[in-house]
Amino acid sequence: MISLAETKVGTIKHYYDHIGVGVLEVSKTVKVGDKIHLKGKVTDFTQEVSSMQSEHKDIDSAKAKEIVGLKTDQQVEEKDEVFKVG
Asked: pTM (2 decimals)?
């Protein structure tokens, strides 16, 4: 099996469990539709970016140094790392 390369795109700074949204500090551009891998002490899953928000507005992409809300399929924790797959 061929493993796809992963590139770190950010770190989770906070998680709002009541809405399933992680606050992502972006280090490299990430877009809606990208496949991402969320990994931490107890976190380890892959999902597609389905929606992101900045200042309560939907956005299609986020660049380095931006702080965005990222809808997650599972719970994430502070300091979890986010990688783009492929």
From this structure: 0.93
